[in-house]
Specification:
alpha+beta, 625 residues, two-stranded antiparallel sheet, two-stranded antiparallel ribbon, 9% strand
Length: 625
């Protein structure tokens, strides 16, 4: 583990070695790291490669610890709400942004191009290193090639088509920038998918433990599978909304016609990962779903759980856990990373049925309840928490849910466990020990995200270091996502394929819920019904992993899913007694300092190209901006 963390320290600090700039168009590669001596030694060559890795965003940091940092995918999804004030992500959630806002531009655009430029330079020179074996030169080269393609793949679902800059660390300070234009969507996807495929051929299946976290064959193929799935979905597959987006050269930036073959390509790309036979689900036998998920989301590096993790980021657990720890616990605890009521509703019952099938007139205070689910929102009774064993009076909404519900959701009245023991009974109501009060550190919806909490840690001692919050091995790509990618694509072009139920049931079995045909037999072979079940399974299995933001947008359901109020429990209540007002579905009035009535219009499917970039290269703007 010591060697793993040595690599981690390099990853966390490497960015400081590179000078910053406002745009990828500003200059050539960073001079301090491109001298004639850099590639003469293995150590400095590896350092340069590590610097390229460092341009990745902080996946585990949910854009809320400070006012303007990191990536906003959780804060701008319909599964989460944050209580923190004056954060840029609220301009996205309430559609009050514009091309001059530059919302999250560094981590979604500038840094991606910086990483691409550095990868290009590295690829040109890595074979000059005399201290590397030919095998290692090939690995290093293909790691950079993977990273270059991966940086592109992260920009594409955010901005749509981008600029492909080829193999050279191009100097865009020269004249003639007015002729520069974004490549088309299909040009971008075909280039990136090909690069990831080629990189995979030169990457190892795995690395020794002391190099855990470096790119592998599986990482390249998983990135390719996700991109091709997004490309097959409605937003980028003949969406009429973008038919009129033509660049200054007369090219349609987006596909103008639907292509079913894209689903077939997406399915095969996922199958390419599966056919490596390197990965499986942790606890696939379903015997202990609670223990399996705990290992998956709290183990680090080559510890148990790696059989499902394809590509991860090891980082301090501080940013992921401090926002999910209630203030009453003590120490450093900001406790403002809330689960929305819609996400609470998404989890199945222990019998495998989904209790909430929709909302009357999209009003989440009026849920449509499946009468066969065994679900109730009336009353309290004694209930033993299946993870912690505490037997407490519990709202019936939270009883007899599937194991993933208890892994992911912490509600008011539960007992917090730290250092594997009870530490505090938590209250999310107004003036409760972790509710609204003088500070904005409270659960805005009456729930906290619990997925990455490690009950073995004692965060009450205070501090922000790894000795308090431990490390997190954030799953950038994991095998469960690959399986869900595969069956979603299969269902769109071959809905009778038996692999759909085979792999969907594999995920459900690990989660401790019955097979889909036992619960919803009429959905088997029915493309429309199965589509909704696959999407619901994805919403539950992959929650709080930076994927829901892109799912609702690429499916083009965001005009409904993200254009409605955020609901939660009534934290304005003065107590959470069983007969009190706390246990009511209400619009969250604490959603980042806004009123909870989020707004999403057609222009919001993609980020705008920033005004600064428009002024620089005179390129085509996205729809509606």
């Amino acid at each position: 583990m010591k060697n793993i963390f040595k690599t981690l320290i390099l990853l966390l600090t490497a960015g400081a070695l590179l000078a910053s700039c406002d745009s990828y168009l500003d200059r050539q590669p960073d001079e301090p790291l491109t001298s004639e001596n850099i590639f003469k030694k293995q150590s400095t060559t590896l350092q340069y490669l590590t610097n390229i890795y460092a341009w990745q965003p902080n996946y585990e940091a949910p854009a809320c610890v400070s006012s303007n940092d990191d990536i906003p995918w959780e804060a701008c999804s319909d599964e989460a709400s944050f209580s923190y004030l004056n954060r840029t992500y609220t301009t996205i959630n309430y559609n009050s942004w514009n091309p001059s806002t530059n919302a999250f531009r560094n981590d979604t655009y500038n840094n991606m191009y910086k990483g691409i430029r550095e990868a290009n330079y590295f690829m040109q020179h890595v074979y000059e290193c005399p201290e590397l074996t030919e095998t290692d030169k090939g690995y290093y080269y293909n790691e950079a090639r993977f990273l270059r393609a991966y940086f592109y793949s992260m920009m594409l679902p955010v901005y749509g088509p981008v600029f492909l800059i080829g193999d050279d660390p191009v100097d865009f300070t020269q004249s003639g920038l007015d002729e520069r234009e974004r490549n088309t969507w299909d040009e971008c996807v075909n280039y990136v998918a090909t690069e990831l495929w080629e990189a995979s051929k030169g990457l190892p299946n795995s690395w020794p433990n002391n190099h855990y976290g470096r790119a592998t064959k599986g990482a390249a193929l998983a990135a390719r599978a996700r991109l091709l799935l997004y490309s097959a979905r409605k937003l980028f597959n003949g969406n009429d909304l973008y038919n009129g987006i033509v660049n200054k050269h007369g090219d349609h930036l987006f596909p103008t016609q639907y292509d079913e073959k894209k689903w077939e390509k997406a399915a095969q790309a996922a199958k390419d990962v599966m056919d490596l036979n390197l990965y499986t689900l942790v606890g696939a036998d379903g015997e202990d779903p609670y223990g399996s998920f705990n290992k998956l989301f709290t183990s680090v590096g080559s510890e148990t759980g790696v059989v499902e993790k394809i590509y991860t980021r090891i980082a301090s657990g501080y940013q992921a856990r401090v926002v999910a720890t209630p203030p009453k616990v003590g120490g450093t605890a900001y406790g403002g990373y809330g689960v929305t009521q819609k996400q609470v509703d998404a989890f199945a019952m222990s019998n495998g049925r989904y209790p909430i099938t929709g909302y009357t007139n999209d009003d989440q205070s009026r849920p449509i309840i499946d009468p066969n689910a065994g679900y109730s929102e009336t009353g309290f009774s004694k209930f033993k928490h299946p993870i912690y064993g505490d037997e407490l009076d519990t709202y019936k909404m939270y009883q007899n849910r599937e194991p993933r519900f208890y892994i992911n959701v912490f509600w008011s009245g539960m007992t917090w466990h730290g250092a594997n023991k009870k530490t505090a009974d938590i209250q999310f109501f107004t003036d409760g020990n972790s509710g609204p009060g003088p500070s904005h550190n409270y659960a805005p919806t009456g729930y906290l995200v619990h997925k990455f909490i490690n009950p073995a840690l004692d965060t009450s001692v205070g501090g922000t270091g790894t000795n308090v919050f431990g490390f997190i091995d954030f799953p950038v790509f994991r095998y469960a996502e690959v399986l869900l990618n595969y069956i979603e694509a299969l269902n769109e072009y071959d809905p009778s394929n038996m692999d759909i139920t085979l792999y969907l049931n594999m995920i459900r079995k690990r989660a401790g819920v019955p097979d889909i045909e036992e619960v919803y037999p009429d959905a088997v072979g029915d493309q429309t019904k199965m589509r909704e079940l696959i999407r619901r399974e994805r919403q539950v299995e992959l929650c709080f992993e930076n994927l829901r933001y892109f799912d609702t947008r690429t499916w083009m359901t965001a005009e409904t899913d993200n254009n409605m109020p955020v609901y939660g429990m009534n934290i304005s209540a003065k107590d959470h007694k069983s007969t009190g007002e706390f246990w009511q579905r209400v619009v969250c009035k604490y959603d980042g300092g806004r009123d909870g009535n989020r707004v999403f219009t057609k222009r919001c499917y993609l980020f705008p190209i920033s005004q600064e970039e428009l002024d620089r290269v005179k390129c085509t703007q996205n729809y509606g901006w």
